[in-house]
Write a structure and sequence with these properties.
The complex is a heterodimer of chains A (about 300) and B (about 350).
Chain A: H1 2-29, H2 43-52, H3 59-71, H4 86-121, H5 126-140, H6 143-157, H7 173-199, H8 202-209, H9 214-226, H10 228-243, H11 245-251, H12 257-266, H13 270-298
Helix pairs in contact in A: 1-13, 4-5, 4-7, 4-10, 4-13, 5-7, 6-7, 7-9, 7-10, 8-9, 10-13, 11-12, 12-13
Chain B: H1 2-12, H2 33-40, H3 48-57, H4 60-82, H5 104-111, H6 130-166, H7 168-183, H8 186-206, H9 212-216, H10 218-230, H11 232-246, H12 250-257, H13 262-273, H14 275-298, H15 310-317, H16 325-353
Helix pairs in contact in B: 3-16, 4-6, 4-16, 6-7, 6-10, 6-11, 6-14, 6-16, 7-11, 8-10, 12-13, 14-15, 14-16, 15-16
Classes of the chains: A mainly alpha (about 300), B mainly alpha (about 350).
Chain lengths: ~300, ~350
């Protein structure tokens, strides 16, 4: 168990390191520095600015300095939002994204599992067909389409919900639906096929034969077995909920991490790009490790070696 | 009971003693050639392809999605050739027309007895025909989906086959690399790469021998590169799994004994035998690529203007969404239909060609 966890953690650290290195050198390749887009500063000002942020040093030195600071948890200062620490920016914006993301994950998980199981139990009937139809559509419709359609119908035509910001509880509804639709549909499909598989197993017949009620057999035997692949999907799903919010946050103008990542790229705010990428990569990789370990704990049949 | 019944029926049919030793001479006449041929016609040989196609034909949803995919291809590649407007031409005086509305100049032409093709979806704020732009956007989406999937197919299958075939430390190292790329948060890296690749590519396009880059478009090329750098890992994993099982089979041992080279075994025996998986995975990769491209273009990081993409069309329509909702819904519905059709087609192909592979 310990060996497995250590192995996974090492792999995770390597991944974060590679992402950091890749991002660093990729950004170095881009011409047009962060100070060029404003009204052109004089050569002396430019040199002073570059010296201040260490951009005048050779790239290898910059890389070494950055990595050393990264090890201490320091992500540097933003170039565009003068004087603001990247750490501060991330930690003021993260809770916003995390709230929407975690709500979306819960909604997707609960609705997906219920819909998938209901579809499997009603195999071939109208209810099953309806659920399969809508979950297939849910996978095919991109997030920005869902988001804009919701905005148009709920926000503008019916005027039920606000179309921007996160000031009232009602304003959470649209971003959560937009984010949850894809993973919910995916889980529903996954759950349905796994449930069908499990329902055909011998142990289900045995459970009924030994006198277990249908509900008990379903919850004790079928659900526990069928839900395992869904748990595996949790890792990528969390990743999706966090990174999928780029679009949702941009459209609905929510001050989250995703929106800030996109603007930091277009404005070439190097430290902010680096910081956000590394932080998100770290978060996602950690989530994946946690999900994997949880998965192995849930299913005792899986060998930890 | 049954034999009794049968014999009784035999009597009723006029044959007196079904089990007698009474031999009839006519039963021993040599068979005519016709009869011989009748016996020879066994069930027609069913190849892998024919078997799969037969199964696919019975799948109604699969057939419908195949028809839709064909229609979208027609819509994106052939129809623009016959459509009187193109995606970049800015028609002066006919800015922001509603569907089927004519500009003053066009009304004059009609009043003088001329014919003007209506703007099916109106025009945008720059006077470009939206229908033409939606067609071109679908073309971009389809090209991205198909080309990116083809690249992924090539890299992933070769990589996976090599890892699975050689096994041992080669496999360990190769799959560790795959594991790392797999855990990299893809959307983040895709956004980063597609931004950073544009400038080096544009520079490269200036040199003489790489002039073709401008023809295809820097944005498109960088999308291809990004997708092929990141998305082949899924394919590699699937192919490796298949090859691990296939390489233990007797025909591989036979090929080895006959002195076939490794490359030949991989090409002729291993990859050809997981062709079903390859087709299905590639088909399902197409909508995934289209999905990501539209997402990138929506954020303004995909193909560059004036080239439209369904994602960027939706993004530009967002500003005037309440006044001109059709400008948003046309590309949005088109992209959803394309992705849905390819997803259903992939599902259908999987049921037909690769019944073992279940997601």
């Amino acid at each position: 168990m310990l060996k497995y966890i250590v192995k996974r953690l090492v792999l995770a650290a390597v991944t974060v390191y590679i992402v950091a290195t890749l991002t660093f050198f990729l950004m170095y390749l881009v011409p047009g520095g962060p100070f060029l887009s404003e009204k052109a500063p004089s050569a002396a000002t430019l040199a002073a600015l570059e010296a201040k942020y260490g951009l005048d040093q050779p790239v290898t030195v910059q890389y070494k300095n950055y990595m050393l600071r990264l090890l201490q948890g320091d992500l540097g200062t933003s170039l565009k939002q003068r004087g603001k620490e990247v750490n501060d920016i991330i930690f003021t914006r993260l809770p916003v994204s995390a709230k929407i993301g975690s709500l979306a994950v819960v909604v997707a998980l609960v609705c997906g599992v219920v819909l998938g199981s209901v579809a499997a139990l009603n195999r071939g009937k109208t209810l099953d067909n309806i659920i399969v139809f809508f979950s297939t559509c849910g996978i095919a419709i991109p997030g920005f389409v869902v988001c804009t359609v919701l905005m148009f119908v709920l926000g503008e035509k019916l005027r039920l919900l606000p179309t921007f910001g996160l000031n009232t509880p009602g304003s959470y509804i649209m971003p959560v639906i937009a984010l949850a639709l894809y993973p919910m549909s995916y889980i529903a499909r996954l759950m349905r096929s796994c449930m069908l598989d499990v329902l055909g197993q011998d142990y289900m017949r045995t459970a009924r034969a030994k006198g277990l009620s249908q509900t008990k057999a379903l919850f004790k035997h079928a659900l526990r077995n069928a839900i395992l692949p869904v748990v595996t999907y949790l890792g990528p799903m969390i990743a999706y909920a966090l990174t999928g919010s780029f679009v949702v946050e941009t459209i609905l103008t929510i001050p989250g991490l995703g929106a800030s990542f996109v603007t930091s790229i277009t404005s070439r705010d190097y430290p902010l790009i680096m910081g956000t990428t590394i932080f998100l990569a770290f978060l996602l990789v950690t989530m994946n490790v946690v999900v994997d370990i949880v998965y192995k704990l849930i299913d005792p049949r899986i060998n930890l070696q | 009971m049954k034999p009794n019944n049968a014999s009784r029926e035999g009597k009723e049919n006029g044959r007196a003693f079904p089990f007698s030793f009474h031999l009839k001479a006519e039963d021993f006449i040599p068979a005519s050639t016709e009869e011989k041929q009748e016996l020879e016609t066994m069930r027609e040989r069913v190849s892998f392809w024919r078997d799969g196609i037969r199964r696919f034909r019975r799948n109604k949803l699969g057939m419908v999605s195949l028809a839709v995919v064909h229609f979208m291809m027609f819509f994106a590649f052939i129809l623009p050739g016959f459509y009187p407007y193109n995606y970049y031409e800015q028609l002066r005086g006919s800015e922001s027309l509603a569907p089927f509305e004519y500009s003053e100049a066009e009304k004059d032409v009609i009043a003088n007895g001329g014919k003007v093709f209506p703007h099916l979806l109106g025009t945008d704020t720059l006077g470009r025909d939206i229908m033409a732009r939606v067609m071109m956007g679908s073309r971009i989406s389809l090209v991205v989906g198909i080309v990116a999937s083809a690249i992924i197919l090539i890299i992933g299958s070769v990589y996976g086959a090599i890892a699975g075939y050689f096994g041992g430390w080669v496999d360990t190292i190769m799959m560790r690399i795959v594991d790392i790329i797999y855990t990299v948060p893809d959307i983040l890296i895709i956004i980063l790469l597609s931004v950073t690749l544009k400038h080096p590519l544009a520079k490269l396009a200036e040199t003489a021998s790489f002039g073709w880059i401008n023809k295809v478009g820097v944005g498109l090329i960088s999308i291809f590169i990004v997708f092929s750098l990141l998305y082949w890992v899924g394919m590699a994993r699937i192919v490796r799994g298949q090859v691990l099982a296939l390489k233990e089979l007797d025909y591989v041992a036979a090929a080895k004994a006959l002195g076939a080279k490794h490359s030949r075994i991989i090409r002729k025996h291993l990859l050809t035998n997981c062709i079903g998986t390859l087709i299905v995975t590639t088909t399902l990769q197409i909508p995934a690529s289209i999905f990501t491209e539209s997402f990138l273009s929506f954020l303004g990081l995909g193909v560059m203007a004036p080239m439209p993409s369904l994602g960027s069309l939706a993004a530009t329509a967002l500003d005037g969404m309440y006044s001109y909702p059709y400008r948003l819904f046309a590309p949005a519905i088109t992209i959803s239909i394309i992705i849905l059709a390819f997803n259903l087609l992939g599902d259908g192909l999987r049921d037909a060609f690769d019944p073992k592979l279940i997601d």
